[in-house]
């Protein structure tokens, strides 16, 4: 009887692990697509307006304040992932 429970627990752990892996992989792909989309949007909008928006954004992000903004955004994403992980359990 205890062996059956042990097997069920291991199967449940594997299933949860696989779900987490799938969710993480899906999230990484979506994040990559979102980044590519934003880059293309900045490029196209810059071409329409006649200014180089993409270069301007890169200059801001490579400045000291831009790095902090980028770090804050990454922290916000991590917090959102953590909250979503807790709410799904």
Order of helices and strands: HHH
Helix content: over 70%
| Shape label | elongated
- Give the radius of gyration: 21 Å
- Our count of helices gives 3
Count of domains:
1
Structural class: mainly alpha
Report the span from N to C terminus: 27 Å
Poorly predicted runs of 5 or more residues: none
Instruction: Report the mean per-residue pLDDT as an integer.
Output: 80
Count of DSSP strands: 0
Query: In percent terms, what proportion of residues is strand?
Result: under 5%
- Sheet with the most strands, sense and barrel status: none
Question: Which key phrases capture this entry?
Answer:
89 residues, mainly alpha, 93% helix, 0% strand
How does this structure look, described?
With 89 residues, the chain is an all-alpha fold. The chain starts with a helix and ends with a helix. 93% of the residues lie in helices and 0% in strands. It is elongated and about 55 Å long. The protein contains 3 helices and no strands. Helix 2 packs across helix 3. The protein has one domain (2-88).
List the topology elements:
Blueprint: H1 2-49, H2 53-62, H3 64-88
Helix pairs in contact: 2-3
Gist of the model:
By secondary structure, this protein is mainly alpha-helical. It has helices at residues 2-49, 53-62, 64-88.
């Amino acid at each position: 009887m205890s062996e059956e429970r042990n097997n069920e627990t291991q199967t449940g752990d594997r299933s949860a692990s696989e779900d987490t892996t799938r969710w993480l992989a899906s999230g990484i792909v979506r994040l990559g697509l979102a980044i590519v989309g934003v880059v293309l949007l900045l490029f196209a909008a810059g071409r329409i307006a006649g200014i180089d928006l993409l270069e301007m954004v890169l200059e801001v992000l490579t400045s000291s304040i831009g790095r902090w903004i980028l770090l804050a955004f990454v922290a916000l994403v991590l917090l959102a992932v953590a909250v979503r992980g807790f709410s799904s359990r």
